Amino acid sequence: MDSGAYQGAVLMWANLPPELLCDVIKRLEESESTWPQRKHVVACAAVCRSWRTMCKEIVRTPESSGKLTFPVSLKQPGPRDTTIQCFIKRDKSNLTYHLFLCLSPAALLVENGKFLLSAKRTRRTTCTEYVISMDAENISRSSSTYIGKLRSNFLGTKFIIYDTQPPHSGASIPPPGRSSRRFYTKKVSPKVPNGNYNIAHIKYELNVLGTRGPRRMHCIMHSIPTSALAPGGTVPGQPEALLPPLSNSLSDSFRSISFSKSLDRSTDFSSSRFSEIVGAAMSNDVPDGEKSKMPLVLKNKAPRWHEQLQCWCLNFKGRVTIASVKNFQLIAAQPPVVATVAPPPLSSSQAQAGGQPEHEKVILQFGKVGKDMFTMDYRYPLSAFQAFAICLSSFDTKLACE
């Protein structure tokens, strides 16, 4: 097709009556929930400005739809009442990990999934680093598809998650180090980040039982306040660019840039900082008003000892089939602040679950199903990017924990 014919075809689609255009996209959104069929919704958004505007009005975020439609969906919270089921494929030969969205109940058997994120592990003198990218092959900090990283201490017991996007202004973010200081000046564009932003800490507790006991962990989500789990609570500072730009390029959706190594030397693995935040979040002495502003703390769900099997067990509801020290389930470490007004009525899924309190629901679960295959199921308030980074921390060897 020559350029004139192509422009004519685009103009014809662009001039569709808004009512008809709305009906077409609604039918696509409501009738197709799996990939690759659902890629047509994304294709509609790339045709012209009017189509993109209509998609933005119709296509909902993962929190309300339970679907990952556009690249920016990977950094938006998952659904509240269900989980998004994914799996991670590990390649030990090149130290890479690939995250896929499950497309069917039998996705793990046939490895049928839509690629979401990738990560590459690099072992340094004093730490281990996982670079996270939206590209399955080009996994490096110099790539435009780089969206964050995970860094550990020497023992592999403490981790920091870095995001290329700055968190919301009210987030309780640890102060940056001297060489990674943020510059708030009018001469710097607010749309361009100056470095990697510390959004979460992960700590694995020392295991006094040795190999007989499961790993214990805490995740401090600095970019998610405790109030997010309260009735009517939200995760502030979510990315607003729901749709890909005209170029329909995955890399343009996050507008991330590469950073000089001199910009991200602030690594604080202080034990006192971890203990202070976790202790305050779970303390009854902290006023509710202050506690609601504190970062959300996640902890691993306590397993039960099975006498017949002589092992620690968790109910993964069929999503995990192989026992491993890496397996875990995360729940909120503290209940949300009780609201003074009556809570909203339970949804149908909540009613079927017996009205389980929000802080007792499994927010993230990770487990082994094959030699190099692992499932990852997450829900609100975590995003796919945050959940993937937390799961990557489980792959690292922990000299003091096992």
TrEMBL record:
One of its GO terms (biological process) is regulation of DNA-templated transcription. PROSITE patterns: TUB_1 (PS01200), TUB_2 (PS01201). InterPro entries: F-box-like_dom_sf, F-box_dom, Tubby-like_C, Tubby_C, Tubby_C_CS. Residues 13-56 form the F-box domain. Gene3D superfamilies: 1.20.1280.50, Tubby Protein, Chain A. Pfam families: F-box-like, Tub. Residues 74-397 form the Tubby C-terminal domain. It comes from the Eukaryota. Belongs to the TUB family. PANTHER family: TUBBY-LIKE F-BOX PROTEIN, TUBBY-RELATED. This is Tubby-like F-box protein.
